[in-house]
Amino acid sequence: MKKHLTYIIAGILAFTGCDSFLDIEPQSILTQDNAYNNANDWNQNLTAAYGSLQQVFIGKYTITLGEFGTDEVEPFDLSWAAYTELLTYTFNAQHAFFDNHYRECYAGIKRANVVIDMPKDAVDEADYDSMIMQARFLRAIFYFDLVKMYGGVPLWLKSSIDRDNIMIGRSTVDQVYEVIVGDMQSALGLPESWPNEADKGRATSLAAKAFLARIYLQWGKPDKALQYCRELEGKFHLYDDYADIFDPQNKNQEYENIFEIQTKHSGAWGQEGSIQHSYWGPRNVGGPTNFGGWGGFGPTQYLYDSYEDNDKRKEAFFFTEYNGVPQTPPSTRKFYDPVYGNQIEDDDLNFTMIRYADVLLMRAEALNSIGDKTDEKYNCLNQVRRRAGLDDITAADGLTQQQFADVLLEERLHELNCEHLRRWDLLRFGKLAEAVAAATDGEVQIKDYHVLYPIPESALNANDAIPENNPGY
Amino acid sequence: MKKYILTLFALIFAFSAANAQEFTISGTVTDTEDEPLAGVAVIIQETKEGTMTDGKGRYTIEAEEGQTLEFSFIGMVTQNVTIGKRSVIDIQMTESAIFLDEAVAIGYGVAKKSDLTGAVASVKAEDLQTAKIGTVTSALQGLATGVHVTTGSVKPGGDASVIIRGNSTFKSDSTPLYIVDGMPVQGGLQDLSSSDIQSIEILKDASSAAIYGSRGANGVVLITTKKGTADKMRISLNASYGTQRMLNKQDLMNAQQYYDLVSYAQPDDYTWTSEELRLLSRGESTDWQDAITQNGSYQNYNFSISGGSEKIQHYFGLDYYDQIGIIKNSSFNKLTARYNMDAKMNDWFRYGVRFNVIESTLKNINEESDPLYGTMFSAISAQPTAPIFTKDGEYFDGFLNTKANPVAIVDLLDRTTLKSRVVGSFYLEIEPIKNLRIRSDNGGELVFYRVNEYEDERMGQHYTEGGHAKVTANKKRYWQTENTVTYDMNIEDTHKLTVMAGFSASRTEFEQTIADSKKLSAILKYYNLGGAEEHGPNESNAVTSSLVSFYGRATYNYKDRYLATVTMRGDGSSRFAPGHRWGFFPSAALAWRISEESFVKDNVKWISNLKLRASAGMLGNQEIGDFQYAALIDLGDPTANYVFGNNLASGAQQINISNPELTWEKSNQYDIAIDFGFLDNRIAGTIEGYYKRTSDLLWEVPLPLESGFNTSLTNIGKVDNRGIEFSISTVNISTRDFSWTTALNFSVNQNEIMELYNGKTDVNKDLFVGKPISDWYLLKNLGIWQVNEAAEAAKYGAQPGDRKVWDKNGDYVINGDDRDFCGQSTPKWYGSFNTAFNFKGFDLSAFFTFAGGHYINNDLRRFLDSYNVWGNMSENYYKYYWREDRPNNRYPAPRVGSAYANGDGTDANLEKGDYLRLRNLELGYTFSKKMLKIMNMRVYVAVQNVFTATEFTGYDVESSSNSNPYPNARSFIGGISINF
Predict the structure, then answer these.
(1) Does B283 touch chain A (CB under 8 A)?
(2) A30 and B CB contact within 8 Å
(3) CA of B557 vs chain A CAs: smallest distance (Å)
(4) Which residue of B has its CA nearest to A53?
(5) Partner residue opposite A2 with nearest CB, options B432, B461, B706
(6) What pLDDT score does B13 carry?
(7) pTM for this one?
(8) In terms of pLDDT, which residue wins out, B797 or B819?
(9) Is B361 strand, coil or helix?
(10) How far apart are CA A247 and CA A270, in angstroms?
(11) CB contact under 8 A, B652 and A35
(12) Phi, psi at residue A224, to the nearest 5°?
């Protein structure tokens, strides 16, 4: 008996002692060894790159960055210092929103790079080209947002990481734009429209053209922009009713809206629903209840007052009163979900990144910039004005090039406000400081260096190859 | 009985008649709990003649009047009684302040307390009985130096946090390792019944904890449960009941005050609902705190039976605990059963079993995980103008702040956590040759955990129409085998050597499933998710880990004077990359029992124990999560998912880069201490100093953001903890029927970050070299801008009445660069004080705890002490907010858009955390066996949280920053305990 037990104990010792006992594979998460086996695996990586669109453009923080500190939108939750700082240009490089935006953009780029670098034989040939074009389309969008915000940024174009060579310095603005344009042009090989309903929401060649117009315009190359605007002629139209542009029922009709960031009411926040209604919704109607918003931010009174009274958009785009509660300043109707808006941060609103009205106005802008003397620019502008019930502007009005530019900028404000474009428009037209001063009665005076946001402090801290921030920060 | 008493009286009369004659004295010797003491030496000092008490504690001796009887017993304070005329002298003996011969668990063995070389704190079972409400972990509060326990609420099912000798990690877990009868227990001791516990030992220093190697860096708590005693059958019954009253209800504005303030601050901007106006017109107000709270209660019943023969001993315990919370609809109940058996088959073979089954049900509707929606937060911030019910009898649902009517939450939310746990182990021990013991201890654990949730649609418009049910179910399976060989050697009582070597292996498997469904039957709820109209998101996950270890310990004792211990453990953990899995953790300790040296023993009589000890060693912390070393690709995270064609598509993304070098956090600890006992150990205590340097600290080191990865878990940096611990216990008075004891312990800990990575002096202004881990780094609040400062205020875009913030760098911009250090959030010192009296059958004890030197961010104040457009505010704010006609420096004016008004990012809401609390006051009376023949019985009443002296204004000074706390309560308790 005594002997047997000794053997048993010795046996237990020997049995469990081997090191293979410690070899345990993850069960709920993939590793590099098993994550990229088939076409579906790669497609899921592409999906993740698309997923970054939601984070970069309609995330809780990023949603504010093209809007605050302009003349069209102001925060109402002023007790939140992060909001106030953007409004009054007292932010510095530690501001959490820049950090979040910068990270999310590069996360999107990382996800796109994985697809762009995938092995040739990973998926069949047709899919391979299409997937890489989509990934490059997305990468262009993310780099475009970075270059607009921060100027020249480091270019990460590979998916592999070399730990010893991980610090990469900033490229110039032009170098970044070259990459953006190259990526976006490669996406011209995509279909104009995806034939299967299940693919709606993916990048199209028409969306690539619209973005190329926007990119070239912002880069200061209106002639190139004009070419892409013209190529979209007849591909899209203007809805008669403004409500149709933003109605969740009209998702992906490809009628006026050219590229939409997709969302879907999910039954719980933090999923695929959008947060837009909760932040933009009418205020003081019971917090985030009764289809109201948090009261986070909304249009300025300055914006509302700048409309002619006969402009249809003055009614179509604003609530001056909601359920008996006056909205002062008026809140926007553009992000209003009548079905799911009362679900906290889980509405069903797609975000339209680019639509045909914008293309028309960009075309007019490009024509004006290159000094075109034909009626083409008036025709483009007037298509937008007519829908608003406004009178045409024609050559007979005798506007100078600068006056026409001023009219255009005003028209863009009235048509495209709250669609995350204002800051870039004002910068392009060189009017940011002027507009901010005008909207705040001179209370907020911005400095020259504010045309760029600071590179986030966290990025500087983590990358020795970026020795200093943008001037002024 | 009656006859016996009569006989005694007769004897007393008989003997008192005789004068200064030798006569027979008899009596019973018991301890303070009325248990008879056998083997007590009873000696007539004048003649040195004596006797001993028998098995029932009785003695008889012949003595003369005027002589002195000395009663002495190991571990008890010696008593002298002068003989008068009485012939019956019953003695109640009091335990010494320290019992040096006590056997103390040290992990894979026991040692005599006098032989210890490391820092091992022992907590006795009876001390745990003081805290009747809550868990065993919370009962540890104040019972040992260097062990900081915080509770802060009486939440049903809530547990305390324990930090031993300071926080020495940035990221990984800082809770100690809990071992119950050799089995590690995750997540605290809430499943244990305190009445099953024999003793708790806390291994604090490297020498004592090194036997647990890679899991020992945060200290080790060893729990030993009760065993049966041969030939001594014992049955115990305990019952207690208590009622709880909520403490520190916040003083908030009533409806009229609220209406007044809002009308003043936002005259045009606020629309009162007709329901609110109806309530106002009647002069009513809703007190939401009252509406969702109630008097709590608890009851606890406990039964145990133990006993056995020389061959086999049993212990069986059954415990039922039931608590109704002070927030409505929160409750906890738990049933535990334990069976312990030890058997001896013959001279060389022993075996035994430890078996424990626990079932618990927790209802917790407080939603702490969601601090801005929790029940308590909802109640605090709901506007007092809102009625609970509308005139149609529906729940009012027009709140500014919250998802739901607080009363609707407590009425309708159904969230139940069910846990079933089975833990057991059996051991075999053989002694093939004398003093060589081979032991194999094998155990396992199965835990089934389930959360059933149902949100009724009537809770409000933010809840899913048609209801929402969610079921979380997980299972944990654990097994281990521990095999040791121990050899004791004793050479002529001069050299005593014990050598132990062992091997262990263990494996944990965890699986979880979460099912989520909407629009379903309100009757079947979570029991029929299949019947729902909408399904998902559903989740599942699983993870496995394993640990293999070799360890050994040698202790050497020379003439009970010089003691040495050497310990070594090697751990192999699956949590690290192949090739980096093994870690080795050595330690050594020396002790010198000065009191055993003849120059003390013979000359200094008042020194009964004096020991100097020192130890050094290294410990590890492997609680870093699993697979952190590998590059992982995550599937289906909402931030990576997208929607195509209005259908959800799963996204996959790499979430980290690999770091095969990842290794343990290592902590090098040095400890030096003096244990003392004076005057027959009536005064005993320890002074101890330690220095602990933790290196290879794990930290998420930022990667260049452009990589698309945020951080990489890397070993960086060093943290120091230094501290002094002092404890003293005294038996102030110990006479035949009165005793008074006191105990004080006091700990000081200083925490300092010594090094970060790449020569950095701070990480994101969050961790700073030269500062404690928990330091606050905030803007400094300077009060309120006054009217005469309007011009200066305008430079900051502020107006009189706004909060004034220190512009540290004087650039007229308030931003992150103006922050400064504002004190630490963890106490610099803490301790406890206990005093107990025994008089005849009565006992009275008072137990105080205290802590201080730290600051707590009172999150509630950000909502209550500035103008809050989302809900109610404090009454003080209403009374004292800044107005031109009543300027002050405390409360900003109620101006929407006033920067920093709520104090976020500043130190405005920091409050001193110093406190002194009378945690327990207890009075009991014991009916002795003499009175009740077959049993003794103790009845008691106790009050917990009698008072707290503190400047903190939130719900409880022990709770950490939280805007949705579970309030603390004062408890009134009564109980009875019976021993047969």
Answers:
(1) no
(2) yes
(3) 29
(4) B642
(5) B432
(6) 45
(7) 0.83
(8) B819
(9) strand
(10) 22
(11) yes
(12) -65, -40
Q: Which residues of A touch B648 (CB under 8 A)?
A: 264, 266, 272
C-alpha Rg value of chain B to the nearest Å: 32
Residue B436, token pair as written in the block: 């060589």
Is the CB of residue A126 less than 8 Å away from at least one CB of chain B?
A: no
Q: Which residues of B touch A17 (CB under 8 A)?
A: 503, 505, 548
ipTM of the complex: 0.93
Tens of pLDDT, residue by residue over B870-904, are: 789 999 999 999 999 999 999 999 987 788 888 98
> Quick check: B538 contacting A, CB < 8 Å?
no
B641-655 tens-digit pLDDT: 999 999 999 999 999
Quick one: pLDDT at residue B367? 63
Rounded-to-integer distance, Cα B324 and Cα A144, Å: 58
Checking if the pLDDT of B159 tops 70, the result is yes
In chain B, the residue whose alpha carbon lies closest to the alpha carbon of A159 is: B707
Q: Which segments in chain A show pLDDT lower than 50? A: 1-2, 5-6, 9-16, 287-289
Nearest chain B residue to A459 by CA: give it: B705
User: Nearest chain B Cα to A194, which residue?
Assistant: B645
Is residue A413 within 8 Å of A432, Cβ to Cβ?
A: no
Looking at residue B125, its pLDDT comes to: 79
Q: Encode chain A in three state secondary structure.
A: CHHHHHHHHHHHHHHHCCHHHHCCCCCCCEECCCCCCCHHHHHHHHHHHHHHHHHHHHCCCHHHCCCCCCCCEEECCCCCHHHHHHHHCCCCCCCHHHHHHHHHHHHHHHHHHHHHCCCHHHCCHHHHHHHHHHHHHHHHHHHHHHHHHHCCCCCCCCCCCCHHHCCCCCCCHHHHHHHHHHHHHHHHHCCCCCCCHHHCCCCCHHHHHHHHHHHHHHHCCHHHHHHHHHHCCCCCCCCCCHHHHHCHHHCCCCCCEEEEECCCCCCCCCCCCECHHHHHCCCCCCCCCCCCCCCCEEECHHHHHCCCCCCCHHHHCEEEEECCEEEEEEEECCCCCCCCCCCCCCECCCEEEEEHHHHHHHHHHHHHHCCCCCCHHHHHHHHHHHHCCCCCCCHHHCCCHHHHHHHHHHHHHHHHCCCCCHHHHHHHCCCHHHHHHHHCCCCCCCCHHHHCCCCCHHHHHHCCCCCCCCCCC
Q: Is B709 near chain A, with CB under 8 Å?
A: yes
Tell me, what's the pLDDT at B370? 60
Q: Which of residues 438-457 of A touch B (CB under 8 A)?
A: 443, 456
The CA distance from A90 to the nearest CA of chain B, in Å, is 7
Nearest to B646 among A12, A111, A264 (CB): A264
Q: Which helix (H) or strand (E) holds B43?
A: strand B41-44
Q: Is it the case that residue B105 has pLDDT exceeding 70? A: yes
Say whether residue A250 is in contact with chain B using an 8 A CB cutoff.
no
Residue of B nearest to A195 (CA): B645
By the CB < 8 Å criterion, does A328 face chain B?
yes
Compute the average pLDDT of residues B592-609: 88
For residue B817, the model assigns a pLDDT of 85
pLDDT over 90 for what percent of chain B? 50
Chain B residues close to A343, C-beta within 8 Å: 462
Hey, what domains does chain B have and what are their CATH numbers? 2-93 (2.60.40.1120), 236-624+662-779+826-863+911-979 (2.40.170.20), 629-661 (no CATH), 781-818+866-901 (no CATH)
**pLDDT, tens digit, for every residue of B190-207?**
888 888 999 999 999 888
Residue-level pLDDT at B55 = 81
> In this complex, is the C-beta atom of B501 within 8 Å of any C-beta atom belonging to chain A?
no
Q: Do A284 and B648 touch (CB under 8 A)?
A: no
Give residue B629's pLDDT: 87
Chain A with chain B: Cβ pairs closer than 8 A: 294
